[in-house]
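User: Show me a protein chain along with its predicted structure.
Assistant: Here is one chain, sequence first, then structure tokens.
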Amino acid sequence: MDPSLFSAVRNTCFVNVILPLAISKTYTYRIPHEWSDKIAVGMRVIVQFGKNKIYSAIVKEVTELAPERYEAKYVLDILDQQPIVDGAQLKLWEWMASYYMCTLGEVMQAALPAALKLASETKIIASDQEGLDKSQLSDKEYMIMEALEIAGELRVSDIVKLLGQKTVFPILKQLFDNGFLMISEEISERYKPKKKTTLF
């Protein structure tokens, strides 16, 4: 066997990720060779789960072991330059999942702000844009903001269709970071009527 081919196989990098879903295990995805030195535990990656659902997932482990029962799909993108969750937090998540008899995905859903766990069906709205400079937006960012101005609310899957590309999370992340976007559920939670407690 050609030694160079053996080296390429050995250097193939995989990640086990936590998906923001009520599933009992992590799933393994393949990292493109050019991203192998950029990935780390605790970062968010964009992955496809099922036929057409896209999620941002947390890297739980980086490994060279390929899954045995299925062919690993490629990670579509890396969202973070630095981990947003550290090892101690991941251990705490595991403890919580065990103690409360739930899944890591459910703990992730509860632990992370909505903007950090985007998925295909996440609903997005424009924030109060007073004081924000739209002139600095890229063409694609401007298209998203114009579409939101017309529609009021869009799912991530709608934005995928609008831009004609599968990976839109980095563009959305930039808009979130610059204050242009909000998650619809954040607004719902903020203005949800508070329940009154009656003492008898």
